[in-house]
Amino acid sequence: MEHDRHVDDEAVTRAAASGTDAPDLSAEQRSHLAGCADCGNRVRAQARIATVLRTQEHQEPPPAVPSFDALIAPRLAQRAVPEPEPRPEPVPAPRVGPARAARLAAAVTLRQARLVPAALASAVVAGFAVLALALLLLPVVPAAPYVEAVTVGLVTVAGLVASDPGRDPGKEALHAVLVPPLAVWCARLVLVLGTVLALGAGVSALAGALPGAGAFPDLVGSWFPPALLGAALTVFGTVWRSPAVGLVLGGVSWAVAVVVLRWGPAESPVTAVAAPLWSDLAAASAVAALALAGAAWLVARPGRSAG
Amino acid sequence: MQITATGLRYRYWGRAALDGIDLDVRGGVFGLLGPNGAGKTTFLRLVSGLLRPRSGTLTVGGHDLRTGRGRRAVRRLVGYMPQEPGLYPHLTVRENLDNTALLKGAPDARSRAASVDGVFERLDLGPQARTRAAALSAGALQRAGLAQALIGGPRLLVLDEPTSGLDPVHRHRFRGLVAGLARETTVVLSTHALDDAARLCDRVCLLDAGTVAFTGPASALARAAPDGRDLEQGYAALLGHRAAGPRLTGG
């Protein structure tokens, strides 16, 4: 049976849901559906789609709808976490300008005069005074061996006394200050050795003014390298082990310079080794610098006992 | 002044003195407890800028002590009192403190005198001003050592076993001094005296073999004891020792 006009989609949907004889369809629509194969196919297809949809609706959980709390709570919690603290500015430490540093260095150096035993000053002054008197009153020609013996000996003793770490008690406490023990130690060495060397130069100048005693540069050149080397070895031995070790090293150095090289045989294995070192300013300075650097390194280290 | 240590380690000739310390000190009085060799003095030396941390980080007042610059800056902010005060025995107390003021950066005699007078007054050291350090009693020697640490107005006071060797009267007096100082400066101290720690310290840290066994208020340390109150038993319990002391027999 042919039909000129098919039912609309709305009627097909109603028929799929409630049947082709559903009361909300008109009589004409019901009659058409009963006789039209095309529209019957449309109703059955619609019914199958509805069945599939209903089945899926029962199988799948309802879509998750994010709650207000779920959306907002994390944000609120995030706001509640304190912001990481900004890194605080370092506490400013007192600064020392160049002028103040210079005044401080001078004050620390002069202070060392009060921390060195007065006996050292007495011994040095007495030694050089006796030497000067001997040069003036006795016909000592040439003067170099005597100036060398006295000056090297006094410089060595001064190095021994000035470098003794035992002079600074509680070294650890003195490490935690602006001027470290190394600077104090250096200031003391500079003050003491500088003073003794200056006095040696003064006596050498006096001797140089005497007829036949030798020229001033030659006199200073005779004692300066062994004095430098002897003092440095004494300082190293004192700091490294003990004043006794320093005394031994200084004594050996003095003996080599004053006895072996001056009065010993001109050609011997000891002379061959010692002469370039104790007589040459460059070689003596190099070894002295090494010994003093080693001593300074030891002084700069605070106590290493575990605790 | 804030002190922050993270994973801090230090070794002496291969032996670990500190083995991964994490600490945060923020003012007040902070006490370091622990047996001999636990690492207390090493920590204080590190905090004072005397030693360089081998690994981990350590900052004092925002200064990184891994750098030479940081250590130099901290030495200007710290007053350090080691177990042995750094006093010249042949100088008087005043001469010693004047020398300390000089080494702390005061080249002018007048400013040094003012600084020394202030510390004398504060610690009641006036009567000992002209006494040679070698002739001081134990209590006066400790006060002179504290005076040495206080010269220059440090922002952080580091005291290594400050009450060791003091009689009870001097210990009580010393505690009062430190408590007064703590109102204006941060104090870090090490001690074997648990009652000192309980009375003085806002927080304590118990070190054991270079590691932190406990950090918190001293009262919390006592809670580790079987009865929850005895500080010494809490200390022993945390160190894993037998809580009971040696058995005493009557006779």
Could you walk me through the main structural features you see in this protein, from its secondary elements to its overall organization?
The complex is a heterodimer of chains A (307) and B (251). With 307 residues, chain A is mainly α. Chain A has two domains: 9-59, no CATH class; 98-300, no CATH class. Chain A is 73% helix and 0% strand. Chain A has helices spanning 9-18, 27-35, 37-59, 68-80, 98-115, 118-137, 144-163, 171-175, 181-208, 216-240, 243-263, 269-279, 281-300. The N and C termini of chain A lie far apart (112 Å). Chain B is an alpha/beta fold and 251 residues long. Chain B has two domains: 1-77 and 158-167 and 188-243, Rossmann fold, CATH 3.40.50.300; 84-154. In chain B, the strands form two sheets. Chain B has a six-stranded mixed β-sheet, with helices on both faces. In chain B, helix 4 (109-123) crosses helix 5 (138-150). Chain B is globular, with a radius of gyration of 19 Å. The interface between A and B is large, with 35 and 52 residues. Chain B: Residues 3-234 form the ABC transporter domain. Chain B: InterPro entries: AAA+_ATPase (IPR003593), ABC_transporter-like_ATP-bd (IPR003439), P-loop_NTPase (IPR027417). Chain B: GO terms for molecular function: ATP binding.
Mean pLDDT of chain B: 87
CATH architecture field of the largest domain in chain B: 3-Layer(aba) Sandwich
Total beta-strand segments of chain A: 0
The amount of helix of chain A comes to: over 70%
Radius of gyration of chain B: 19 Å
The rounded distance between the terminal residues' Cα atoms of chain B is 54 Å
Report the mean per-residue pLDDT of chain A as an integer. Answer: 84
Return residue spans of chain B where pLDDT drops below 50 for at least 5 consecutive residues.
242-251
Domain module count of chain B: 2
Number of helices of chain B: 9
Oligomeric status: heterodimer
- Low-confidence blocks of residues of chain A: none
Strand content of chain A: under 5%
What is the terminal-to-terminal distance of chain A?
Answer: 112 Å
Any idea how many domains of chain A? Answer: 2
Strand order across the largest sheet of chain B? 6-7-8-3-9-10
Q: What structural class should be given to the helix and strand makeup of chain B?
A: alpha/beta
Indicate the CATH topology of the largest domain in chain B: Rossmann fold
Structural class of chain A: mainly alpha
